[in-house]
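Z., the sequence and structure:
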Amino acid sequence: MQPEALRPVVVKSPADSRWEYCARLLADLQFATILRFLRPRLADIRGQLLDVGAGESPWCYWLGEHVLYTGLDVESAESFGMSRRPNVVYFDGGRFPFEDCQFDAILCIEVLEHLPRPLEVLREIFRVARPGAQLLLTVPWSARCHHRPNDFHRFTAEGLTALLDSAGFEVVSIAERGSDVSAIANKLLVLNVRLLKNVSPKSIVLSWPLALACLPVTALFLAAHHLATAFGYRGGRDDPLGYAVVAKRPDPEAVGVMNASR
C-alpha cells in the first residue's frame, strides 16, 4: 500500500505549546471547528468522563477540576504517533475495561472513521455510559484518507443518526463543522503543503511554481472561512469539513417521572 504523503499531526493542548496551538487554530480548520464545538460543552461536564480514542488527551485543558478524566486508546496508539499518557487506559480492542453505567459523559473525537465496526464500539460506549450521560462525538466528512490502512468510513448526518440509533443513543443535535468554503480552504492548504514538500529534482520544477500560484487563492479562502465563522455565516452546508454530534443515553427513570407528571 502506498504510504501517506502527509501524516496527520498529533493534536496537543495549549499547555504543550502555545505557539503551535495558535498556529493550528489558524491553519488546521478541522481542529479549529472541533474545538469551537467542544469548548463550551467541555466546561459544562461534571463527574466521570471517558475519552474514547484519547490520543494525547488534548481536551483535558478545557475541563474543570470537578471532572474525573479517563482516556481510552488501543495498545498500538504509538504507531499513530501518540505518546503514552498516565491518564489513558490502553487495551487490545473489543470490550472496554470498565463497568456498566460507569461514566457521566463520553468524548469520541475523530475516531469512528478509523473503526472497521463502529457500531460495536458505539454499543460499548452505550454500555459504560450512565442513563442520561452525554456523548460528544465528531467525524470528518471532507478529509483526505489518513492513518492508512486504518481509515474506513465517511459518515453523513443521516448515517450518523442511524448508527447512533442502532446503538441505543438519542441524538440531541447534529451540526456541520464548517462549510463548503471551509472544505475548499482546507483542501488548498493540504495541496500547498504537499507541493512544497516535494523536493525531488524532477518534480520541483512544476510543484513549487504551482504552490506559489495557489498561495494567494489559499489565503483568500482561509480568510473567507475565518470571516464567515466570526460573523456567523453558515455558507453551503452540504459539503462541510465534518459533523459534530450531541447524543445521550436515554434515562428511563427521567422519562417515567415526566410521564407521571403529565
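The first helix runs from residue 18 to 27. Residues 8 and 80 are 9 Å apart (CA to CA).

Let me know what you think.
H.
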